[in-house]
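Why this split exists: single-chain examples teach little about how molecules sit against one another. For that reason, every record in the complexes split bundles all components of an assembly together and asks for one structure covering all of them. Below is a record exactly as it appears in the raw files.
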Amino acid sequence: MVIAKTVDGEIGIMPQHAPVLGVLVEGGVLRIKREGEGDLAAAVHGGFISVADDEVSVLAEVAELGSEVDVAAARDALDRAQASIEANQEDADAAIEAKRARARLRAAGEEV
Amino acid sequence: MGAQLRLLRRRINSVKSTAKITRAQELIASSRIVRAQQRMQAALPYEREITRAVTGVVSNAASVDHPLTVAKDNPVRAGVLIVTSDSGFCGGFNANVLREAEALRGLLEGRGLEVVPFVTGRKGVTWHTFRQREMGGQWVGFSRKPAYADAKEIAQTLIDSFKDDNGIDEIHIVSTEFVSMLTQNVVVKRVLPLEVEETEATETTAIPPYFEFEPTAGDVLESLLPRYVESRIFTALLQSAASEEAARRRAMKSATDNANELMRLLTQEMNQARQAEITQEISEIVGGANALADAAAGKE
């Protein structure tokens, strides 16, 4: 089963799901639940999920598998983004940065 | 005679050093083709999927009228993205692209459209500035190794201009398609307004799946189409990069071959000149010795 976060909310896709095309949110975490194996998590920043012919494809501009996340770097990025949000409330870039960093940390299985 | 010999030696040396340079360029280009090809391959799945998704949306939701999909009733301006290289030494690569772009310009002007060129690559930009043609946009510095961000920037400019009422009404791309190491073709593609028939006609399963959309077809299209244009431009840039290296390798190979041939001819000529000089010296010495001998004989 694939769980993704679209702009409408979370969507879970089981085998034999009807074809869907969804827009993913910025800084979401995609989870793939596998039988017999552990879950696979990835931080996905924007993009689309498309389900057709029993195939799920995720098109993202930037994506990172949880196991590949550099936790220290992500934490560092989050701290920096939060500092600049505190300094300037309307800093949209920093807000996105913070979202992305949080998604990366969550994908890596860290508490945020 | 000595002067001619020196001259030939100097020419041989200069040809030799040129050959060294072109040979090195050839080797560099060969190694770069492989990497350019890998980058091209890596971008392929994304393009395939995004094309499939766009086809899905457009063929499913006929009711969706997105400004990017509808052909304007009376187009006035057409934007042409011309993909050239930053550096030369690649044979007819840029000339071919520019010739095709000129042909397209003629075709569009025949339809009564004003053509706005958008140019990437230093060679194309210079070509246009030299002819004092106004450009809608120009980008340089990444022809050998285009990044996705570059494609994004170009797509943004094109889409903004497309959405603008006074901007362009059509977008075409003229670029070089990489078929193999030996074959590269210049292709002209229309990106917008969308031509759905053109995309992936080979892989159509009987009925395209009926998609549900999250949140709505219009919203999906709104964010999908810019990505699609980006991806098309990115592919064009990558293909062009690989083609450029292939063209460069070929040009440099023939340059090296020509230099070697020239070196052979010059060496021959030089040997002849040297031989002639020696022969002349011998005959001079012999003649001198004979004259001395004769003079000595005459005294006695």
